[in-house]
Amino acid sequence: MTTEAHAPPAEAHGGHEEDHIHPEPTSWFTKYVWTYDHKTIGKQYLFTAFFFALIGGMLAMLIRWQLAYPGQPVPVFGSLLQAMFFFGEDGSITPEGYNQMVTMHGTIMIFFVIIPIIVGAFGNFLIPLHVGARDVAFPFLNALSYWLFVPAGLIIFASFFVDKGAAAAGWTSYPPLSDIAAAAPGSGLGQVCWLIALFFLGFSSIVGGLNFLTTIITMRAPGMTMWRLPLVTWAQFVTSIFQALATPVLASALCLQLVDHLFNASLFLPSGLHITGADIPVGNSGGGAALMWQHIFWFYSHPAVYILILPGMGLASDLISTFSRKPIFGYKVMVVSMCGIIGLGFIVWGHHMFVSGMNPSVGMAFMVSTMLIALPSGVKVFNWLATLWGGNIRYTAPMLNALSFLSMFIIGGLSGIFMAATPVDIFIHDTYYVVAHFHYVVFGGTVFAVFGGIYFWAPKMFGRMLNERWAKIHWALTFVGFNGVFFPMHILGEGGHMRRIANPVFYDFLQPLQPINVFITWCAFLLGASQLIFLVNFFYSIFWGPKADPNPWESNTLEWTTPSPIPYYNYERIPTVYHGPYEYSTGAGNGRGDWLPQNEPGAGGGGAAAH
Amino acid sequence: MLKSARLRGLFLFAMSFLTAGAPIALAAGDAKAEETNWTSWSFMPENINFSYGQKTDYLYFVIMVIVAIMFFATEGCLLYFMWKYRRREGHKATYTHGNNTIEVAWTLAPALVLIWLALYQRDTWSQIKMDLPAEKDALVVQVYPQQFQWDFRYGGKDGKFATKDDVYTPQLFVPVSEKVVLKMTSKDVIHSFFVPYLRVKQDIVPGMLTRVWFTADRIPLWDLKKQEMVFVTAADFDTKRVGNAKDFAWKEEVLGTSGRKKLSYEAKERKAGPAKGQKVCELYFQGEVQKDVPCEQAEYVLHRVEIACAELCGLGHTTMRAMLQILPKKRYDEVMAKAERLAEEEAPPAGTAKWGKIWDKFHADYNTPMGAGH
Ligand code: HEM
Ligand SMILES: [Cu+2]
Ligand SMILES: [Cu+2]
């Protein structure tokens, strides 16, 4: 076992890369715009996502204002943006504007911020580096993937300005509301933009996913077996499977709805449907099924929520191991549990539809599979905790964010169990409980992991260190603000507070909860403002921060054996890999410290397997 | 190494014991599920549906206990490890790649709990969703929402739908503690019938029949002294002096910057009355109606709970609300008798054309009574 694990395998993957290093592009255009370099493409994704995060964040602030002070003019912005459909004469938010805001907030944050950062930016930047290659398998497709994302972004951005404004039927876009122009202000051109934008994005995702899969399978450096991949790359591998298999289903759903919009196909419109004031006479619609969309949509979108979290789990695994100075506990179990998540991830979509009118027996089956999907996540949590156990933990900014990922993900996972319990979900479905749940997993989980990842890899990406002190201040304020915003939402949900309503005080039974809404709003402003610290720190430091050493965190994976910032060709010589990625505190010392880079033979404990 | 392995074993044992032990202990409390208010510690609105609302609440409570144990165990470990294993000079991390026994154990323990939970809740789910009472044994009301209003139809005297004596209402009236089955479909987009106090939520989809059932076992009253809503049983109702809601004006004052409302009832002026200027009311007391009593004698006013639309349904979604009146059987019968008389004498109110034009044409089969089950 030990000898086998140490010897580089005979058939060396990716060996052909050894001889030719492509020359660096010389023109500005091929260097920064139409570039084939996976690192630059990763940064393109990162900056584009930052831009959209600003828009999504602004929308969130407006939403919070409305919920705390319904109908009151929005200070400053209300009068600035009065011309937009969002606002009434006096600068207050209109009900249709509110619906558009929640719809676009969700759409932008999921499809234009989190997925581009977690897959586009981190996947592109890290996968070739982690497998020990000079680029991805299909650099052209990689560039194409980004340049399909850009028109998607432009279209979704433009949709704010089209006639009657952006889509307003929720990020889930349930027909018939989304399907008929007369049903909601945004369900005309705005919805068409939404569909086309997501269609582009879907293609970008599929192309990207296939590319990553091919890269990880075929381009691993000599000695880099699958069981020696860093978990963040394993996570990308698993995510790519989701992307390649589930996204086409989304594309088909989008097409169907588009056909309804453009050709009145009535695929989602049953007979007898009639919208008051619309010129669809009774009987003109018909033959379709409204529920069909929900099935197709969630068949993609449940896997999509795992697309959001899996890479985050990978990032957190790398950071927790590195800063605990310990090998990850149960490496193979970590991988197997991610595979379990894919398997189960495809058969739980119905848990979004427990009260949709779906047959209750089917609901019961989905309840069981949903209960089971909590298991792999739970096992991962135990393994992260066990990784910390016996460690020598360094509290750097990346680590603080990774630990926040862990503690917040626990809460998000546990609230999932309430909703998996069908009778309870009848009550909490479509309330703020759901909103609390997914923000704990997506913001509390993924976004903290992303911050950790950015603080961690910025030195390698830009060759400069981010300011550690401001990073910690940013982390602390974000942690406090985040919990202030989203924890009380469990209470709102428990109180029956529906999501997506523009005026909570309209309902008598929600009256007593209104102070909580006000509290949440002020925490949201704190949370929003704290992100400015990050932006200033980030943009200042990548230009003027202190120059980074090749391996500032004393980490093992291959990218840290290269100079910072990383050269165009990544590796001058394709490295040979001798052991798993987390050989910390092996006791061998090597005259260096407590780490043992993957490309260095040494007295590490062999592969990363759990023995 | 041995020492640390033992420590890990201990930690693990404690965790699996806690997680597996909890449901077993809780199942013992199951017998009492019917009697106790299981969510009084929470922010959940009071449950008034005793057919299954209690069970929903009990399940919520059971999950809360399990989840709380998991939460404190994991977050506790996290904080403890963060403190215990913080970086110290000269300290060295334990070099280990894991332990298969532990992995198996901490996979199995939560797996058992989750499977137990999945099996445990099946009964409640089937009672709610699959074992609907036969429609001949229940009050059947049809619900036909549209952007952005609720409409209800009762079978009237003959109990049959799509006949001349049908009663149409913009609010839902039900007698206390009687089984109610709602047959719902939507005229336009998807809406969702949500009554927090009944633990009922059901999407209403165009082109589809969705049914829910419940019993409303408490009568909502407005306590005029305390200015708050209370729930009373049918027996209690007869011991209280309850004013007719029509004689009182419902006030919602908008207060403060947060837009919070203050709610109250105030006696309305009525033209006829014994003494001039005196406000008089109709009072329910001890099962009798007393007319023209001074309003001060009323201690309570008949109140109602809200029906909300829980599915985003367009521009007016936020304000798509109807009221649920839960009445003592006798009062309910009076209200219905009056409505039935009106239905016979007068043409159906404006705005009810959609029932005849669309529902009865496209969904005639929804009018036939259904048996027990779903
Ligand atoms: C621990 C395992 C989990 C369980 C048992 C679980 C369960 C559920 C259930 C039952 C719902 C539907 C609730 C409802 O609409 O009534 C839901 C919603 C949701 N979950 Fe999870 N979940 C888990 C983990 C995650 C993770 C890891 C993510 C993403 C990173 C996630 C993201 C979401 C999102 C975005 C929604 C709401 C979608 C919407 O309606 O807008 N969940 N979850
Ligand atoms: Cu899901
Ligand atoms: Cu509605």
Describe the structure.
The complex is a heterodimer of chains A (611) and B (374). Chain A has 611 residues and is an all-alpha fold. Helices cover 60% and strands 0% of the residues of chain A. In chain A, helix 5 (95-131) packs antiparallel against helix 6. The model of chain A is unreliable at 1-18 and 605-611 (pLDDT under 50). Chain B folds into 3 domains: 2-90 and 98-129, no CATH class; 136-218 and 303-367, Immunoglobulin-like (Sandwich), CATH 2.60.40.420; 251-297, no CATH class. In chain B, strands 10-9-16-11-14-15 form a 6-stranded mixed β-sheet. In chain B, strands 3-2-1-5-8 form a 5-stranded mixed β-sheet. In chain B, strands 4-18-17-6-7 form a 5-stranded mixed β-sheet. Chain B starts with a helix and ends in a 12-residue tail after the last helix. Chains A and B meet through helix 5, helix 9, helix 10, helix 11 and helix 12 of A and helix 2, helix 3, helix 4, strand 7 and strand 13 of B.
List the helices and strands and how they pair.
The complex is a heterodimer of chains A (611) and B (374).
Chain A: H1 2-6, H2 28-33, H3 38-68, H4 77-80, H5 95-131, H6 139-158, H7 189-218, H8 231-263, H9 290-324, H10 331-345, H11 360-388, H12 397-420, H13 422-428, H14 432-462, H15 468-494, H16 514-544
Chain B: H1 2-29, H2 53-84, H3 100-120, H4 122-129, E1 139-143, E2 152-154, E3 167-169, E4 172-175, E5 179-184, E6 191-195, E7 200-204, E8 210-215, E9 219-223, E10 228-232, H5 234-237, E11 242-243, E12 248-255, E13 260-267, E14 280-285, E15 288-294, E16 300-302, E17 305-309, E18 321-327, H6 329-345, H7 353-362
Parallel strand pairs in B: 1-5, 4-18, 11-16
Antiparallel strand pairs in B: 1-2, 2-3, 5-8, 6-7, 6-17, 9-10, 9-16, 11-14, 12-13, 14-15, 17-18
Helix pairs in contact in B: 1-2, 1-3
Bound molecules: protoporphyrin IX containing FE (HEM) and copper (II) ion (2 copies).
One copper (II) ion binds at residues 302, 305, 348, 351-352 of chain A.
